[in-house]
């Protein structure tokens, strides 16, 4: 049986509940958008049921501790191939075991999930360091990102705490959605095509353009060619982030 769902984490947990209600383990779990008729044999779409998802979380917390939902959510956002089946494997082990399976590194799937969670953790911290806001003429601070993993939902606490009085938007150009914050709340948004126009040279405030030029000048002034270590620099600031760093785009 292939189970499909709406692509949300709550929807995925609803699938987990349904597999146990039906007592039918999944051959695969995919999003409804991934489903191609005729390719997966027997298919069942599972609607999102928050109450059922909450029961799954309650059971996991009892077996694996209160951090199990957060761990699964971080792994789920990684978008790794067959991540749903890996997480189902975790749940199946938890149901069968009397110990906390998250600490059972003898199991290959547990080792793999911990590796994925560490990758997510590193990517979140890189976003904390590399996000660069630019203020446009609408007094909106905008930053573009294209992370390897879908970490945008995990960025709100850091930036809400750091910039509580600002109106800001962090937009993931790879996944085509953003996180918009205006005190006291934040929400996910999508924009029309050509999103970069909202921070084009013509849309920036005059002081923002000047600050960018000063920032670029500063980095040029502290750069000592004789002391450059590109290999070390790339370890700390991978090249894939450069296109969104103002200091990497001198006039």
Task: Describe what is shown at a glance.
It comes from Roseihalotalea indica. By secondary structure, this protein is of the alpha/beta class.
Structural write-up:
By secondary structure, this protein is of the alpha/beta class. The chain folds into two domains: 2-122, no CATH class; 131-248, no CATH class. The chain is built from eight helices and eight strands. The chain has helices at residues 9-22, 50-64, 68-77, 83-96, 108-130, 156-162, 206-222, 230-236, and strands at residues 2-5, 28-31, 43-45, 134-135, 141-145, 168-172, 177-182, 185-189. The protein has a five-stranded mixed sheet, with no helix packed on it. Strands 2-1-3 form a three-stranded parallel sheet, covered by helices on one side. Strand 7 (177-182) and strand 8 (185-189) form a beta hairpin. Helix 1 (9-22) packs across helix 2 and helix 3 crosses helix 5 (108-130). The model is unreliable at 201-212 and 214-219 (pLDDT under 50). It comes from Roseihalotalea indica. This is TIGR03915 family putative DNA repair protein. Residues 83-247 form the DUF4130 domain.
Proportion in helices: 40-55%
Number-wise, the strands total 8
Please tell me the overall pLDDT. Answer: 84
Strand arrangement, major sheet: 4-5-6-7-8
Termini gap: 57 Å
Q: Pairing-aware structural class of the strands and helices?
A: alpha/beta
Features:
251 residues, alpha/beta, 8 strands, globular, DUF4130, TIGR03915 family putative DNA repair protein
Layout: helices, strands, pairs:
Blueprint: E1 2-5, H1 9-22, E2 28-31, E3 43-45, H2 50-64, H3 68-77, H4 83-96, H5 108-130, E4 134-135, E5 141-145, H6 156-162, E6 168-172, E7 177-182, E8 185-189, H7 206-222, H8 230-236
Parallel strand pairs: 1-2, 1-3, 5-6
Antiparallel strand pairs: 4-5, 6-7, 7-8
